[in-house]
Amino acid sequence: MATYEFTVSVRTQYLPDQSDPERTNFVFTYSITIKNTGTVAAQLISRHWVITDANNHVEEVRGLGVVGHQPLLQPGEHFEYTSGTALQTQQGSMVGEYFCVAEDGHQFEAKIPEFVLSLPRTLH
After folding, report:
1. Domain locations in the chain?
2. Are 4 and 100 in contact (CB under 8 A)?
3. Which of 41, 83, 94, 115 has the most CB atoms at less than 10 Å from its CB?
4. Could you tell me which of 28, 31, 5, 15 has the C-alpha nearest to residue 93?
5. How many CB atoms sit inside 10 A of residue 26's CB?
6. What is the dihedral of CA 93, 82, 88, 18, to 10 degrees?
């Protein structure tokens, strides 16, 4: 039986050299690994992010692919990329999903688990 699944893992980093705390601008990168843990080859078509800062300001981002790519992943293959975002607070979070289409035409979503963006030593 066919299974349709991408597993997503995330690493984050604060970029002090690109941030300006006096102007409430905090820049973070996030490195994503997407692995096809299903049994059918599938392509990542688009993304949807919900970015929330510590003041509960929410920004939604939608777009095609990731960093200019729409990777086609065979079972067991993975794709890695790094992107970034700026917040007006020292902490925030991101959550979302990738919209995917398998070789056989089946459409599915790959959930991106919520992750925290935080300056080092500020998370409580």
Report:
1. 4-112
2. yes
3. 94
4. 28
5. 25
6. 150
For 54-68, what is each residue's pLDDT tens digit?
999 999 999 999 999
> By three-state DSSP, how is residue 13 classified?
strand
DSSP calls for 16-79: GGG-BGGGTBEEEEEEEEEEE-SSS-EEEEEEEEEEEETT--EEEEEEESBTTB--EE-TT-EE
- The per-residue pLDDT for range 70-112, each reduced to its tens digit, is 999 999 999 999 999 999 999 999 999 999 999 999 999 999 9
C-alpha to C-alpha distances, 82 to 21, 22, 33, 123, nearest whole angstrom:
23, 26, 9, 22
Fold of 4-112: Immunoglobulin-like (2.60.40)
Q: Tell me if 83 sits within 8 A of 30, measured CB to CB.
A: yes
* Residues 124, 121: Cα–Cα separation, whole Å: 8
